[in-house]
């Protein structure tokens, strides 16, 4: 009998795993044995094995054989070394050298069977080893490559995963119902695990990935289907009897008039709130189109009707910005708004919890700190989720559960095609802000190569002389935070040197939140002339006097993300400039730079981005408007996603999952998403 619950035990239940390793694994999002088993490689190195006489000079191959001589390390120069031994392959003996990996010696002994991957020199009968694999670990020659970071090395992870497989594979229970698996010809969960980590060949790996993708989408769609059904069961939400007289005061206090699109969105939202059906609405609008004000109207209406409201956003900077803006608008109307993030001090936090519960606080704005269990509302009537694709279903659910069938307003700056939206978010009505507020000048965009930096500097000098501020942005490459930082630091040095009489400041993602806030506040106050950043400023930041942006290595961003970044400027009445600096090598890279320089239509750019993603684009994940999955890809595997949705909806309608193993997984996934 298998017992799935054992799998949810912390990784420290594995032999030889202590708290240090557990902490390292946590940095990859791996907490339990289950997480380890389902932490899949993102690709495989195909290590080709060939008979010796078929190998060409300089070819990369994997050779399997038996260690024939005592491995010997010779050292030369500073930190340089060569590890050599002879390897017997059937009746031949070749030489193997590993440079600068002396520690490998400990894993070798005469008579041991090993596999070595490297580059073969035919004349010398010598293999320069890149990689050493104990033969048992890699019979197939498909070496799994996992996403790792500086805390956890590839090799260590492989051995931990193998350990987990050895001891716990038999506890894994299938969660996709048998019938469905047959219908779609899917592997069992145990088979998925074995084949994903140790495929025998490329076809194996492909089939396993197909099954793993379905499984992943199925879990997601079950969550979504349950979310929707739970809301529908009692979607007898309450009608919010808001006070139009009070709301007129808000309108009067605004420094501008709402655009026609904004008015229409507010009306649609008000109709939903006024009905006794629960509101489930998505507000789409390009960056800078003015979604925040619309949200403020929704919030204020809920408050005049006697309810509290919560606004959840993905980053701390954005939470702070929203808070400042919304508090400024609503405070004069007697509304109490607070900011709650991971950085809120314990004492203050306790006070906030108390006042949320007793109802003194009307509006809470924050990051996913909002879903902590201590946050208990007196009467939560409206939940707003900004950039909702950045949150997991479980996170959204957790916030929604804090009210009794509260109205839900999701906001996104990245429109996605309707069918895709249905598949990814479930049933929602859509309001759209199509036009930017009037009086805005379109941003002038240009693509410059690095040999045209003189043009860029000339424009910068002109803008700085006129008292305007500038963003200088370098790409965020999610695989390597350290590299991001290095890029940004180098750029900071360079601009500080090139603009000695300007105040140049660096802002990056690894700074403590309080420091980021401080820098943003100084920038907003005009005390900083050039702000050098990674893409931490990507969403929501609003400083109208900053009307120029330079984006370095622009070809490393996705189009949607470039558009989001650019949306930080063009917010005032003055002319804004955006310069994309890139030296793309490929035609598609050049085409992308031309598109971004020529079009300001977010929808068009999103579609172009989707096309690129179809071709396996790696960049700009966070800004695509789509949720990210570990194995599957929403665009490439759309059909699987849609099939999984159908299956899940049927299952939920029929029975609610009375399937214990599935229930446990769903609970576990929810728990995991809500980990802070
Ligand atoms: P979004 O969240 O959609 O990116 P914001 O809500 O931050 O956009 O609005 C961008 C800027 O436009 C803000 O400075 C806001 O005050 C301003 N704004 C919003 N609506 C209008 C309007 N109708 N007329 C003029 N300015 C507006
Ligand atoms: Mg916004």
Q: What would you call the shape? A: globular
> Percent range for helical residues?
25-40%
Q: Would you tell me which CATH topology of one domain applies?
A: Rossmann fold
| Rg over C-alpha atoms, rounded to the nearest angstrom | 28 Å
The CATH architecture classification of one domain is 3-Layer(aba) Sandwich
Share of β-strand residues? 15-25%
Number of E-type strands: 21
CATH class descriptor name of one domain:
Alpha Beta
Unreliably modeled segments: 614-623
CATH superfamily name of one domain? P-loop containing nucleotide triphosphate hydrolases
Task: Write up what this structure looks like.
Residues 452-611 form the Helicase C-terminal domain. GO terms for molecular function: 3'-5' DNA helicase activity; ATP binding; ATP hydrolysis activity; DNA binding. With 676 residues, this protein is of the alpha/beta class. Among the domains are: 48-132, OB fold (Dihydrolipoamide Acetyltransferase, E2P) (Beta Barrel); 244-433, Rossmann fold (3-Layer(aba) Sandwich); 444-599, P-loop containing nucleotide triphosphate hydrolases (Rossmann fold, 3-Layer(aba) Sandwich). Helix content is 39%, strand content 18%. The chain contains 21 helices and 21 strands. The strands form 4 sheets. The protein has a 7-stranded parallel β-sheet with strand order 11-12-10-13-14-9-15, with helices on both faces. The chain has a 6-stranded parallel β-sheet with strand order 16-21-20-17-19-18, sandwiched between helices. It has a 5-stranded mixed barrel with strand order 2-4-5-7-6. Helix 12 (393-400) links the parallel strand 13 and strand 14. The two termini are 34 Å apart. The site of adenosine-5'-diphosphate (ADP) has 16 residues, from helix 9.
